[in-house]
Amino acid sequence: MPMKRYRRDQSEVSCCLKYVIFGFNVIFWLLGLNILGIGVWAWTEKDTFNNLSRLTNIALDPAFVLIVTGLITFTIGFTGCVGALRENTCLLACYAIFLAILLLLEMTAGILGFIFKDWIKSQATNGFQAFIVHYRDDPDQQNLIDWIQEKWLECCGIEGPNDWDRNVYFNCSSEAVGSREACGVPFSCCKLKPQEIIKNKQCGYDVRKQDYPQETSLIIQQRGCLQAGEEWLEGNLVYVAAVAVALA
User: Fold this and answer.
1) Which terminus of the chain has fewer CB atoms gathered within 10 Å of its CB, N or C?
2) What is the pTM of this model?
3) pLDDT at residue 175, rounded to an integer
4) Cα separation values, 175 from 7, 183, 215, Å
């Protein structure tokens, strides 16, 4: 005997809630798609797809971070958007699970951040060291570290300017092979002079040489980025906590 199918007379989900969820997730869906597109475009510009040897430092690649972030945002936005519009319980369940996992990860990261401060400090140091070593190898990493040193923290190196000896171009011994940047630092370490509108890109040349004619503290930042980051976090703890709570 054939089974009769009963048509739903009304929606099982509140119409208001349905379109609120749909509207918010359309925004995040498009945002995730744009972020993913930017990451893929950055990899294409660097010819990463045709030269997989560049993936040795993939975790430190800003383009890779954009791809992962965009993919996660796109997936969550898609499941929430389609699930709410079609009232698909399977997609809505996946959407709820994704959000629960993200919330759990945020809470876990916050708790572990307070418990394992020294470990996080060590990981940040190792990451910054890798940025310095590969400063000239990846334009994205180069732009990121220049932004950190010049625009954000106003610092130089990890503990100080001498950390740039880790880079083959800025190492003092590189002068023997003709590196003009030997015993220097990137321009992002330099302090902006009074009434200077455009910074001289060669301002960091030779500043770590012992016979440098000027006082280096007047030319470049002496504070390391690790100390500067700690001071910034302590000074903006309320704002950082507010952003974390808003995201949660």
Assistant:
1) N
2) 0.76
3) 84
4) 81, 8, 21
Q: How far apart are CA 187 and CA 108, in angstroms?
A: 38
Distance from C-alpha of 164 to C-alpha of 67, rounded to nearest angstrom: 29
Q: Token digits for 204? A: 């960091």
Beta carbons of 179 and 136 less than 8 angstroms apart:
no
19-69 per-position pLDDT tens digit = 888 888 888 889 999 999 998 888 888 776 666 665 656 667 788 889 999
Instruction: Give the tokens for residue 243.
Output: 């952003």
pLDDT of residue 116: 84
Q: How many CB atoms lie within 10 A of CB 211?
A: 5
* Residue 199, Cβ density class (10 Å: 0-12 exposed, 13-18 middle, ≥19 buried): middle
Which among 191, 6, 25 has a CA at the least distance from the CA of 99? 25
Rounded CA-CA distance 70/118 in Å is: 30
* Low-confidence residues in the chain, pLDDT < 50: 1, 6-7, 9
The answer to whether the CB of 240 falls within 8 A of the CB of 226 is no
Between helices 117-133 and 225-235, what is the axis angle to 10°?
130
- Identify the three-state secondary structure at position 190: strand
